[in-house]
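Shapes recur. One chain:

:::
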Amino acid sequence: MATSGLLRRSVFRGFSSLKTWFRCSAVQFSSAQSGFFPPAEGIMLPVGAFHNRVAFITGGGTGLGRAMTATLSQLGAQCVIASRKLDVLQQTAEEISSQTGNKVHVVQCDVRDPQAVSRCVDQLESLTGLPDVIINNAAGNFVCPSERLSPNAWKSITDIVLNGTAFVTLELGKRLIQSQKGASFLAITTIYAESGSGFVAPSASAKAGVEALYKSLAAEWGRYGHRFNIIQPGPIRTKGAFSRLDPTGSFEKAMIDRIPVGRLGKPVEIANLAAYLSSDFASWMSGAIIRFDGGEYVSMAGEFNDLRRVTPEQWKVMEAMIRSTKGS
């Protein structure tokens, strides 16, 4: 009996200490393993993989769109980038063209307006002809409690993300079908298009709609030579996204803590994946959703995954606690 009581007191003290240890050990988890997974900065596909190909990228002037444009241009593509901000597009096009030696064209376009999209595609055709690669990357997002959302706030996001993607995809798709030309379509969504997420309800809803659209068209338009794939990125640091989603910088560490790879993604990494999915090397891929998040989604999904923070010493205490419950 004395031994049993001593064990219970030891376990109780261990449990109290365990809660403190558990919280403290979270700090240790996030960075050490990132050394096993350094980002590769180079281009993955062979030079010339997109020779004589035209790529159209919405939101191509900044962030992930700029990174994808740079990679495709390095691989030989003639790129056309579109967004509302013509000055930003022109600067990006000049910088990438000077680096790669391949012309990058610009087309001003508000994807929320179907008439503007039609005029944009007219201009695209006159510049390069219809594209072989279409990347729907234009997006908008901000964090906000859902009870504070106005109808205009909701519409400002869904018009860009869902309607804009639909208008661009359908306008180009119809013209490609009429011309009997095949193409690869790629959409950039997010991991919470699948899981949902508080405080970004308009974006989560709109990007889930984009995924449904692309899966539907993958089934329907394969007969016309069209492939549709989706990338769900986790947190990748870009100036535009982080200024709206983490304006104080206080959430970045929490993001890294929950990513098993132990770091944020790099724009060049998603650019390489986008290039692969848009290339002939992925010609048998259509209707695919690629989760590209360093393991963040599965890390958050499992209810016991936080046990990875427990140290060997803490496990000894926990095992004693578990053994003490036998027969109870």
